[in-house]
Amino acid sequence: MQTLTVDLGERSYPIHIGSGLLQQNELIQAHIQGKTTAIVSNETIAPLYLDALHQTTALYNNTDIILPDGEKYKTLEIEQQIFNEMLSARCDRKSTLLALGGGVVGDMTGFAAACYQRGIHFIQVPTTLLAMVDSSVGGKTGVNHPLGKNMIGAFHQPQCVLVDIDTLDTLDDKQLSAGLAEVIKYGFINDPEFLDWLDRHMEKLLQRDKEALTYAIYHSCQHKAEIVAADEREAGQRALLNLGHTFGHAIETGMGYGEWLHGEAVAVGMVMAAELSQKMGWIKSNDVQRVKDLISKANLPTEPPKEISAEQFSQLMSIDKKVQDGVLSLVLMTSYGQSIVTSDFDQKALKAVLTR
Ligand code: NAD
Ligand code: GLY
Questions:
Q1: Is residue 136 located within the same domain as residue 188?
Q2: Whole-angstrom Cα distance, residue 168 to residue 127?
Q3: What lines the ligand 2 site, CB under 6 Å?
Q4: Residue 341 maps to which CATH number?
């Protein structure tokens, strides 16, 4: 097992990464406070991994809260189901929530923990690659609104993140690739050496080689932990983690939640960010090709859906959380393996990228 720490003073927490960790009860028990737990999962993941967490919570008064599966259920309405079941189970201020699932379960459980009786403890047990390398770390929690992705939420850090890479055995190939989009993202942000490593090991990652996966997860979490420790509330550099996300969120919202996987939308968003960077003269066409090649190698799309017009894209992007006082900032590339957050881009160049 390898352990990293997200360094946030008295709210610091460990990320444990390894094989067979769901069976090591003490790793989670060390972070449960009180006598009551509630495991939040969904109807797909529960039959696979809930038993293991029942062993962990055997000494506690535990309730299972099983949500419907899918991004389209990441809503305030389903969030209310969590609160209803917590209240019925008499969860109190000392109860601990356990999020067993991908980013949807993790974001919704974290939001429930942030709000329930003004804030209780929670533990992330991510079961998708995307959740292991990104959403379970850093304390961004929340739900979607019909008008915008992740628009309702709170910052609330977990007590612990437990990454059991064995859970990836049951994840389908499309979801694995979606997670690789967020892994690749860290390379584009500021790590060209990691991009070279990914280029050389992509086949192994797609074949689920555990050594390669562990390295990619550890390295990604290291990047995320550093950025979150430096800028927990996204006053500055944390916005870099949104590379490809403004374009991507527009695709997710525009197509209808769940039609495109989050990671697929982010993959295309990173290509669009590269294209805009090239139009600004910051990177070369050869660099854009390298971005596309690496993303394709991970079996991810590089073209946005034809259904979304340039006007729709602009309108959807104007609701992004990186719009402040009406000014949109984007994460753009200044070289292959280096990105910046900027509002200093040409609107005509953006329009050209949105017009396919
Ligand atoms: P997801 O949670 O919908 O999971 C993908 C699918 O895989 C689901 O059908 C799920 O039931 C299934 N699944 C999960 N684990 C499995 C396993 N081990 N075996 C078999 N099936 C399994 O999607 P995701 O990609 O994990 O997360 C996407 C969400 O995360 C989006 O809502 C996105 O906005 C959010 N997100 C949040 C942050 C953050 O910082 N909080 C960062 C990135 C993404
Ligand atoms: N996934 C973006 C962030 O955590 O800031």
A1: no
A2: 7
A3: 134, 138, 140, 238, 241-242
A4: 1.20.1090.10
